[in-house]
Amino acid sequence: MDEIQSLIQGFEVALSYRNLALMFVGVILGVIIGVLPGLGGANGVAILLPLTFAMAQTPGGTTSAIILLSCIYWGALFGGAITSILFNIPGEPWSVATTFDGYPLAQKGRAGEALTAAFTSSFVGALVAVIVITFLSPIVARFALEFGPPEFFAVYLLTFCAFVGMSREHAFKTLASMMLGFALAAVGTDPVTGTLRLTFGSTHMLAGFDFLIAVIGLFGIGEILLTLEEGLAFKGASAKINLGVVLETWKELPKYWRTSIRSAAVGCFMGIVPGGATPASFMSYGVALRFSRDGEKFGTGQVEGVVAPETAAHAAGTAALLPMLTLGVPGSPTAAVLLGGLLIWGLQPGPLLFVEQKDFVWGLIASMYLGNIAGLIVVLTCVPLFAAILRIPFSVIAPVIMVICAIGAYTVHNSIFDVWMMVVFGIAGYMFKKLSYPLAPMVLAIVLGDRAESSFRQAMLVSQGDMTIFFSNALVGSMTGLALILLGWPLMSLGIARLRQTLS
Amino acid sequence: MSGESGGRAAFRQKTAEIVVAAVFLLLGAIVIFDSVRLGIGWGEDGPQPGYFPFYIALIICLSSLVNLVRALLVAPQKNKAFVEIGQLKLVLAVLVPTAIYTAVIGWLGIYVASILFVGFFMRRLGKYPWWKVLAVSVGNSVFFFLIFEIWFSIPLPKGPIEALLGLN
What we know:
The complex is a heterodimer. By secondary structure, chain A is an all-alpha fold.
């Protein structure tokens, strides 16, 4: 078992005092980010990424930096549940499904139980996903070492077509938003020939649009504007978690093992294919509702209804790192930001990472185990503290979050122009959210645009412009084929529905 | 969310859909224009620089046309409010100061601008007494100053007041 050996080495890397301290710092920051409106996993990591530039220069620093950032991500995943259950406000989109049963539980005075169930199942979901990552990612990476440009382009194609096929938003809105991302990525220097594109003589456009600015604006500013509309007051249940409640809930949880396994499986699957945590949590809630013996009681405050979405969301959020590490294709916006971080630190995400940067990869995987344990401890012990943050009036917290976003946007390139861009992206994010244009495919396209284009053009160079190269062997052919099926799926399902209508 | 507070609609859903689809169409057209300039065919070394963006923009234009048509077909009775006037006022009450804040950053530096921004919010929307406004807004900037300038040594934009205090 090579994996176990590597994992033990990884633990040796992750278990330094510095890295352990960073884990706790990351998790605490992450939970705060997850609790605050307007700050979430993706833009939280994006804002803090510039702080790691210096850290990554030191020996072993990249590992510490990724541990800090990934722990912020775990913290944000945990934090979303707190606001959902106590305030009926999903702090993160993936915790919307948690409000369905979590908030009724809190209203019945069982908030402690609901929170413990949410945190514990988050932990279980993450653990399953990390185990999957531990054993599956070396295999995927080894497999992907053989990939050439056509295969990589097929993977990108599959990723983006999956968005169109599986998104809950309208297919043409998904397509428009995704392609806008690609267009933004194309601004600046052409990755192959170095020609300037789409800059229209502006020096600000030379470097192109940075995805970090886009993420901070779209998710941060956009989210604050949306929150504003819904009014400024938060009314929440109060919660205390003591050891008694925790143990009591833990005794009850094994009853729901079937739901847990199903949700973890749904989550891992949706995380690896770029479905993401949000659809995973809804899907898993729906599946639990259909299969549970107490299905008809869902929505009135069932612990099982908290277990299902939380397990799946956390499993998906974690599993999204698998394709990011092995193929360089992130499964979620936050994973995309982390991937951007790797690129900035000078690491090349993809199969070679597992050969050339063993310490980094396995240190990260080991830190996923430890970080989630740290997360569970932090959230179980500090809930009242985090809930108190939400009681800070919005007229104080909103401008402070705006200032944080502005500082985050500025520090990416030390440019005030970027702060302006952030505001523009903020307005765009607000409009897109309200008109249900999905943001995730756009962000992924901005991050992956150059790489997708390069692999396409390299493949074209190899084949001398012959498109059949994307069907030239069984592997690339089946990936391209699957991608095209997913792309056509919305049309097909529409056709099937029409057909049924006419037949009946 | 919408319609409950009984406010009048500032914009309707249909208008917003049409505007956004039109903006997409415009952006797509701009990209096509520049791609054609760069060459969208095949050079000696494979696709020309404009090749990839051209097809990307083509898809933007086609899908935004579909979105535009879909928006135009929205039935009047389904045309809900996009933003109510009250909501729009709140959103603008944040957006306009944010734009001013961004402009002031370049002039006074981020720390002083942040004091004014946070202070304005607390005084205007929160109606806090002055001493609270001052404590929070100044405290906030001092906190970020310590973190960025001292701890991480990342310089943020500073203005004449920092220069006066000798903090540059």
